Amino acid sequence: MVDTKQLKLQTLEKAVAQIEDGMTLGIGTGSTIELLVPEIAKLIHDKGYHLKGVCTSERTEYQAKSLNIPVVHINDVLHIDLAIDGADEIDPHLNLIKGGGGALFREKVIDEFAERFVVLADETKLVDYLGQTFKLPVEVDRFNWYQVARKVEARFNTTVERRMVEDTPLITDNGNYILDCPFNEKVDPYEAHEFLIHLTGVLETGYFLDIADHAIVGTQAGVKTFDKINRD
């Protein structure tokens, strides 16, 4: 059986094939993207591609700069040709849960802005419905995080956890907390997002709905690709 890292590596060739000379790229965050960034650097330094990267996290930006990939800020570009990012869950409609790396707000800004958004993942991320295997991350202001958590718990009959790194609350690149919200039953992600996004103190949710255009997934049977299916 092929391990998870090898499944992720399988997706890189098809991901790189999406990149064209002259593009401005949205570069995501997470373990799969960490494998992709050196491949982007090879296009620049070995093949002479002229590429620019807009990074979804400080961690990705550091890696990109260390490999001499030109990095620009989101506010300094007029468009992003292609965003490539990972996901924590992918449902049959190509809707996602993201935010396992704590970068969900910047990821959503860049992935929505891009003309085309491609997701890389291994087969363990494929689910029947969002929330099936992964807790929904929600980025919240530190001032009233606990009050937000109580409202989420009451609405969804769940126990919300503030994400910790050892004994310290995780602080996002935006200076906020992440609440991880498990769902005890299937919920409508569109309705859940609307409830959450209107709570004062919520910056963004980890629901990425109707954003992804294409998914490249490494499986035990090889690489499979999926295109967006419109919601019924």
TrEMBL record:
Enzyme Commission number(s): 5.3.1.6
- Entry's InterPro entries? NagB/RpiA_transferase-like, Ribose5P_isomerase_typA_subgr, Ribose5P_isomerase_type_A
Q: Which reaction does it catalyse?
A: aldehydo-D-ribose 5-phosphate = D-ribulose 5-phosphate
Query: Where in the sequence is the active site?
Result: 107 (proton acceptor)
Its annotated pathway reads: Carbohydrate degradation; pentose phosphate pathway; D-ribose 5-phosphate from D-ribulose 5-phosphate (non-oxidative stage): step 1/1
The reply on keyword Isomerase is yes
Its ancestry begins with: Bacteria, Bacillati, Bacillota, Bacilli, Bacillales
Positions of substrate binding: 29-32, 85-88, 98-101, 125
Q: Which organism is it from?
A: Staphylococcus canis
Which family does the record assign? Belongs to the ribose 5-phosphate isomerase family.
Q: How does it assemble?
A: Homodimer.
The UniProt function text for this chain reads: Catalyzes the reversible conversion of ribose-5-phosphate to ribulose 5-phosphate.
Kindly provide the name given to this protein in its UniProt entry: Ribose-5-phosphate isomerase A
NCBIfam families xrefs: PRK00702.1 (NF001924), PRK13978.1 (NF010585), rpiA (TIGR00021)
Coiled-coil annotation reads: none
Q: What's its top-level EC category?
A: isomerase
Q: Which domain of life is it from?
A: Bacteria
Q: Which GO terms describe its molecular function?
A: isomerase activity
Alphabetized, the UniProt keywords read: Isomerase
